[in-house]
Each structure stands twice: as structure tokens, then as C-alpha cells.
Write a structure and sequence with these properties.
nucleotide-binding, about 90 residues, phosphoribosylformylglycinamidine synthase activity, alpha+beta, EC 6.3.5.3
Length: about 90
């Protein structure tokens, strides 16, 4: 089974109240390294079989027509999850 990951973020000119709340809370929790936060969305689309270029193209189309609001959001990536190299959080 394959998986496509779609990431969507608010456009830079759009206010991000959730990001502002997080950036305000970080220093109170001792995380003073960060000066800004933008919060977005991540979708994981499962497919039967391998992820092909045709499936990635269909995922891009779905991302721009259904998974994002093009007025206020940008689709920042559409990737094959098996090609991702993730760092473990508990390393």
C-alpha cells in the first residue's frame, strides 16, 4: 500500500491565530529559540499499490481543488511518503 502526503499552509499574507498562540506559549515553556510559528495541515492519502507519477498528479489536483482553500492557503508539497526520510521525535 502506498501513501501520498499533502501539506497545506496559510498564505503568508493571511493571519494565523493558531500560530500566534503557539509562538506566545513556547517561551513560557522554556523554548526561547523560536521567533515565529505558522500552523498548517497535513493529509495522508492511501493508495492500493505503489505511488506512481499519475497518482501524484491526481493528489496535486485533489490538493488544489478539495484539500486546500486556494483563497487563503497554498499547497506546499505533495510527496510519496515512502520517499520521505523522517527524523524520529524520541531520538
Amino acid at each position: 500500500m502506498g501513501r501520498v502526503v499533502v501539506e497545506v499552509m496559510p498564505k503568508p499574507e493571511i493571519l494565523d491565530p493558531q500560530g500566534k498562540a503557539v509562538v506566545g506559549a513556547l517561551p513560557r515553556l522554556g523554548f526561547t529559540q523560536f521567533s515565529g510559528v505558522r500552523q498548517g495541515k497535513r493529509f495522508e492519502l492511501e493508495v492500493d499499490g505503489e505511488v506512481t507519477p499519475e497518482i501524484l498528479a491526481a493528489a496535486r489536483e485533489a490538493a488544489t481543488t478539495l484539500l486546500s482553500n486556494p483563497v487563503i492557503e497554498d499547497v506546499v508539497s505533495v510527496t510519496d511518503a515512502s520517499a520521505e526520510v523522517a527524523e524520529p521525535v524520541n531520538a
